[in-house]
Design a protein that fits this description.
Layout (H helix, E strand, L loop, with lengths): L1 H17 L24 E10 L2 E4 L4 E4 L2 E3 L5 H14 L3 E5 L12 E6 L6 H6 L4 E3 L7 H10 L62 H6 L13 E2 L10 H4 L3 E3 L14 E2 L2
Parallel strand pairs: 3-6
Antiparallel strand pairs: 1-2, 1-5, 2-3, 4-7, 5-6, 8-9, 9-10
Organism: Pseudonocardia thermophila
GO molecular function: endonuclease activity
Protein name: Endonuclease YncB, thermonuclease family
């Protein structure tokens, strides 16, 4: 009896292993609920600062790349001007940004948006009217919008710095000439004029009137001697010969005939006065 009981106990595990096990039904997995992302719409945002002529940063940290335009790079002169113009229009302003349908961000993660200023003007239209910004062809802006920008564009974009003329060399200052010494005034010695010799007193004219002549003078005058070698026209006697001058005679003579020697210049009857 004891042996039979042991055999039954040893067969119980085998019976348990061979007994059929009821299967648990597997339910099918629930289908995932599709999620849809709403397309971005217009936003009113505030600009924190401007990065360059066509990019700016919002106060929440997002960056916006303006659709339809391309400004000169900020390391050029025209690019710096574009940044300054964009700063004057956008920095600190509350603007409206609007996406192009089907377009959200570029490969750098920047929002691609049209931008409207608080006064209703289009930011891109204002920028293409200046030489530092041109129309961005082949971008994500609509064809109609690009056509409108072309109409506002003032011409090809110019990003080359204008050549600057080399500064002129400052000429060296001219040396100031030393002042000329003032010559000492010349001292003129006083002129001494030698006194002119007194003119010799002319001998008194003999009176032509025999009544006023003193007897002594009349007696002293020799009478012309005809045939004695004296000229008959002169008294006192003058040699009758070659022509004589007053300097040869040395005294007055009375002309009593033709004045052959031309001694009486004033025809008063007295020669060599």
């Amino acid at each position: 009896m004891r042996v039979r009981h042991l055999i039954v106990l040893s067969l119980l595990p085998l019976a348990a292993c061979s007994a059929p096990v009821a299967s648990t039904p597997v339910l099918p997995a629930a289908a995932p609920v599709p999620t849809t992302t709403a397309a971005p719409g217009p936003e009113t945002v505030r600009v924190d600062h401007v990065d360059d002529g066509d990019t700016f940063t919002l106060t929440d940290g997002r960056k916006v790349r303006v659709l339809g335009i391309d400004s000169c790079e900020g390391d050029t002169g025209p690019g710096r001007t574009a940044t300054a113009d964009a700063t004057a229009l956008l920095e600190g302003a509350t603007v409206t940004i609007r996406p192009e349908p089907g377009v959200d961000r570029d490969r750098y993660g920047r929002l691609l948006r049209y931008v409207t200023l608080p006064d209703g003007r289009d930011f891109a239209v204002l920028m293409v009217a200046r030489p530092h910004t041109g129309v961005y062809e082949g971008g994500d802006a609509s064809v109609a919008y690009v056509v409108g920008l072309r109409a506002a564009d003032d011409g090809p974009r110019t990003c080359t710095d204008a050549p600057t003329a080399a500064p002129r060399a400052t000429p060296a200052p001219r040396a100031t000439p030393a002042p000329r010494a003032t010559p000492a005034p010349r001292v003129q010695p006083p002129r001494t004029t030698a006194p002119k010799p007194a003119a010799a007193a002319a001998p008194p004219k003999p009176s032509s009137s025999p009544a006023t002549r003193s007897p002594q003078t009349a007696a002293a005058k020799p009478q012309p001697l005809v045939g004695s070698g004296c000229h008959p026209s002169y008294d006192p006697c003058l040699p009758n010969g070659p022509d004589l001058d007053c300097k040869d005679i040395g005294h007055p003579v009375r002309v009593i005939g033709p004045d052959s020697y031309r001694l009486d210049a004033d025809k008063d009857g007295i020669g060599c006065e």
